[in-house]
């Protein structure tokens, strides 16, 4: 810094009072009105131009411009604060970087940012990120705040950050400047008020004069955050007429729920002002509550307002809290990571800075006032288990579900208050850090969202369920889809929807679990079984249960029989049937005192209770309002088969291909060659898709690979599909694409195969490869969002013809993309097949590829 060089304010008597300005100074003026600020800006700019300084005016306020082109050779930047804090702060950071060292700046009045952000907190954050960068570049910058508007904490943060803080008063046509902070300068009279008359300055040192002066000045009283003031005023509007209430509601929706979109249109339709105020009362901090929270609240409201009141008795109340998106920015700013955040938001730095920023996000601290609110929230929940869930701005909206891209973290919430607090805060850090996970980065990049303002709010929910022995879990959980595109015979009504149902926590319903299966429920006929041999019923049922261990204070997986045994307040047969054969064998072998073996089939629940009917009607009701298929996550707890409550924890639109135009499937004789012909077990609507390439994995050779070799195969498949992203590609492989367990399929990341058009999973039970379209899983969401057609190929089943040898006439093109491929060319076959077409009719449930 050029500490010795003195810069003039343009008021020469005042220069002597504060010993001049220094390069690096940020100068903040507290004023009564914009006219007062203008009176100190004018001499500063005039003097700076005389000294041939580069003067830059940052224009964003609602007041009249402070400077114009007519003033002289100044540069004016118009920056739109309406685009949000991150966009605004990033744009200003980049223009400061562009203008470089020793530029002189005049900023519009910071108080005007309240009209865009409605948050004192964010004005403080902006100053915290802007001021140090200006100081670093040896600039001088003028800022203004309107007195008696901002909170003590905002002024305190600005005072702590700035180099010079000055009060500017006007009393009876006289102007007074009262220095409050002048960094690294001091004189015996510096911090007295000073009467300014032109260039002359008189220090008010006499006690009588000072007392008379300050008696005429309104000192700042403690003010609530502007955000809180707005909502306090809105509560008063509840007593006013409907027009006032409606206008206030729309204003608050924009602040709390998001900018105009299809989701917000629905919120305006279903929420009233009292609803919005209730949501605001449960927010920590300020800003948006995020897409996941909005989706959950809207779906609940749609069901609550059902004209026939079909759902009220079945829907469990929620008492969720929302950590506002502004807390995410505050966390980044207060820990000093904003500059790195700006670099990461560029195309060049998008991946380069992400990992380091992720590590930082896992280790930061929160301001004292935020910590206190977190503690009060935990005191509210007591020792009830909670879940900390991501709720970003773009999440669960039309077109961008972000399914599984960000973290959700269970807090079993046991131990001392301090231990519970530390676990909770670490869960928040994990959610924040997940914004820098590669899958999330790829998702945003591939959808052109990498520069979007993706703020992370957080949804904190009480975990639904009860204590069973030393465990905590709900009776059932799962996901539901209002449109069932995965139908295996013509009798399935796709418009009735489906459920993917599990016992215990719903984690097994949304993640593809090793050697485990959820119960797929077609809601037109809930007891309908999927096509499988009777002896496979137990093999392809749920084997493990995810629970929260109160004793171990963590999420655990336990055996089904162990979990079922803990249910003592309800008939276990509602969920599982005793495995009579296994029970008989155990007794014959002399085993006693072990849990009775069960098969989880939900037979009584699906045949004898109202549960499937209520779920079908609820999905249809929400979907009708959305005018779109929807995907929900839920839990359900029972007192008996018809006395239950469903906790709707998430809802989002589900993009689908839809039916499209009907397709006439080519008729071929049974002896005519084809690559694939099947009835049922596919999803994606009606298609006629000419293929350019088929990438296939040889099942036997893949099964013989080591685990490391299987991972290599996955990475090489990713390399090839990325190179072919502009072609029409079908991907065919054993078992489950995207599994985390190579013995069950090919462990690709979805980002590696997201550009293909068709995914086929081939069953080979003898080799352990069994396809499973994990309905409602994050992988399923990715397939549907990316418009990928899916086929499960049960080789050897009736109505299935699968002939891999059909491609034997096509050369393996793998060497085009993979060099030194000798170990892989027998496993991966890349065929250029410009004469092969996939035809599918979802109504007729017929598919042909030849």
UniProtKB/TrEMBL annotation:
Pfam families hit by this protein: PPDK_N
Domain Pyruvate phosphate dikinase AMP/ATP-binding: start-end pairs: 289-668
Enzyme Commission code(s) on record: 2.7.9.2
Highest taxon above the source species: Bacteria
Gene Ontology molecular function terms on file: ATP binding; metal ion binding; pyruvate, water dikinase activity
Keywords: ATP-binding, Kinase, Magnesium, Metal-binding, Nucleotide-binding, Pyruvate, Transferase
This protein's record includes keyword Methyltransferase: no
InterPro entries named in the record: ATP_grasp_subdomain_1 (IPR013815), PEP_synth (IPR006319), PPDK_AMP/ATP-bd (IPR002192)
Parts forming coiled coils: none
Function: Catalyzes the phosphorylation of pyruvate to phosphoenolpyruvate.
Family: Belongs to the PEP-utilizing enzyme family.
Protein name: Phosphoenolpyruvate synthase
Organism encoding this protein: Natronobacillus azotifigens
């Amino acid at each position: 810094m050029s500490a010795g060089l003195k810069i003039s304010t343009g008021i020469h008597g005042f220069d002597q009072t504060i010993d001049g300005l220094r390069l690096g100074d940020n100068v903040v003026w507290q004023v009564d009105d914009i006219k007062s600020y203008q009176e100190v800006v004018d001499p500063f700019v005039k003097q700076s131009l005389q000294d041939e300084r580069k003067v830059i005016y940052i224009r964003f306020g609602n007041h009249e411009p402070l400077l114009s082109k007519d003033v002289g050779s100044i540069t004016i930047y118009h920056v739109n604060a309406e685009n949000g804090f991150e966009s605004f702060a990033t744009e200003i950071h980049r223009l400061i970087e562009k203008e470089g060292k020793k530029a002189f700046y005049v900023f519009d009045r910071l108080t005007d940012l309240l009209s865009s952000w409605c948050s004192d907190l964010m004005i403080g954050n902006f100053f915290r990120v802007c001021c140090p960068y200006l100081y670093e570049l040896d600039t001088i910058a003028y800022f203004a705040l309107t007195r008696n508007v901002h909170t003590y904490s905002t002024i305190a943060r600005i005072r702590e950050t700035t180099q010079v803080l000055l009060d500017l008063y006007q009393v009876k046509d006289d102007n007074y400047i009262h220095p409050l902070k002048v960094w690294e300068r001091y004189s015996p009279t510096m911090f007295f008020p000073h009467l300014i008359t032109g260039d002359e300055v008189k220090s008010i040192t006499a006690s009588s004069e000072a007392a008379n002066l300050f008696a005429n000045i309104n000192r700042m009283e403690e003010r609530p955050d502007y955000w809180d003031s707005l909502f306090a005023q809105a509560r008063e509007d509840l007593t006013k007429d409907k027009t006032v209430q409606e206008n206030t509601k729309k204003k608050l929706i924009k602040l709390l729920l998001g900018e105009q979109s299809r989701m917000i249109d629905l919120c305006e339709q279903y929420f009233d002002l009292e609803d919005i105020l209730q949501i605001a009362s449960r927010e920590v901090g300020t800003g948006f509550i995020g897409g996941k929270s909005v989706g959950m609240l809207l779906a609940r409201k749609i069901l609550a307002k059902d004209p026939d009141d079909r759902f009220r008795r079945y829907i469990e109340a929620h008492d969720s809290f929302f950590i506002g998106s502004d807390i995410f920015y505050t966390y980044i700013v207060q820990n000093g990571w904003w500059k790195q955040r700006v670099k990461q938001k560029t195309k060049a730095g998008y991946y380069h800075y992400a990992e380091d920023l992720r590590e930082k996000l896992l280790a930061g601290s929160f301001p004292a006032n935020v910590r206190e609110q977190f503690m009060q929230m935990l005191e509210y929940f007591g020792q009830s288990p909670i879940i900390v869930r991501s709720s970003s701005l773009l999440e669960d909206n039309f077109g961008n579900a972000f399914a599984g891209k960000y973290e959700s973290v269970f807090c079993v919430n046991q131990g001392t208050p301090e231990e519970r607090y530390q676990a909770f805060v670490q869960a928040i850090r994990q959610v924040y850090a997940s914004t820098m996970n590669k899958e999330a980065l790829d998702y945003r990049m591939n959808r052109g969202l990498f520069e979007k303002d993706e703020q992370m709010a957080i949804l904190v929910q009480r975990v639904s369920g009860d204590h069973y022995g030393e465990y905590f879990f709900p009776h059932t959980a799962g996901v539901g889809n209002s449109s069932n595109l995965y139908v295996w015979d013509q009798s399935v009504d796709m418009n009735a929807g489906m459920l993917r149902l599990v016992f215990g926590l719903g984690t097994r319903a949304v993640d593809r679990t090793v050697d485990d299966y959820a119960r797929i429920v077609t809601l037109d006929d809930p007891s309908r079984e999927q096509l499988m041999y009777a002896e496979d019923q137990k093999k392809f049922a749920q084997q493990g249960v995810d629970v929260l261990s109160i004793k171990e204070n963590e999420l655990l997986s336990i055996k089904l029989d162990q979990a079922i045994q803990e249910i003592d307040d309800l008939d276990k047969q509602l969920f599982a049937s005793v495995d009579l054969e296994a029970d008989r064998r155990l007794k014959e072998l002399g085993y006693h005192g072990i849990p009775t073996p069960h098969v989880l089939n939900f037979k009584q629940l699906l045949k004898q209770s109202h549960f499937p009917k209520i779920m079908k009607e609820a999905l249809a009701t929400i979907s009708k309002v959305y005018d779109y298929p929807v995907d929900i996550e839920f839990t359900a707890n029972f007192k008996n088969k018809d006395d239950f409550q469903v906790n709707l924890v998430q809802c989002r639109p589900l993009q689908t291909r839809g039916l499209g135009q009907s397709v006439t499937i080519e008729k071929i004789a049974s002896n005519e060659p084809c690559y694939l012909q099947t009835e049922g077990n596919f999803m994606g609507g009606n298609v006629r898709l000419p293929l350019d390439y088929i990438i296939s994995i040889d099942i036997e050779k893949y099964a013989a690979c080591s685990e490391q070799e299987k991972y290599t195969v996955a990475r090489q498949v990713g390399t090839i599909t990325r190179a072919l992203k502009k072609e029409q590609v079908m991907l065919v492989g054993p078992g489950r694409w995207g599994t985390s367990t190579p013995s069950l399929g090919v462990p690709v990341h979805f980002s590696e195969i997201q550009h293909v058009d068709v995914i086929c999973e081939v069953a080979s039970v003898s080799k352990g490869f069994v396809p499973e379209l994990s309905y409602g899983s994050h992988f399923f969401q990715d397939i549907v969002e990316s418009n990928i057609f899916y086929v499960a190929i049960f080789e050897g089943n009736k109505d299935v013809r699968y002939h891999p040898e059909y491609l034997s006439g096509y050369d393996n093109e793998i060497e085009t993309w993979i060099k030194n491929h000798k170990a892989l060319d027998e496993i991966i076959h890349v065929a250029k097949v410009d004469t092969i077409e996939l035809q599918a009719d979802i109504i007729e449930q017929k598919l042909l590829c030849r």
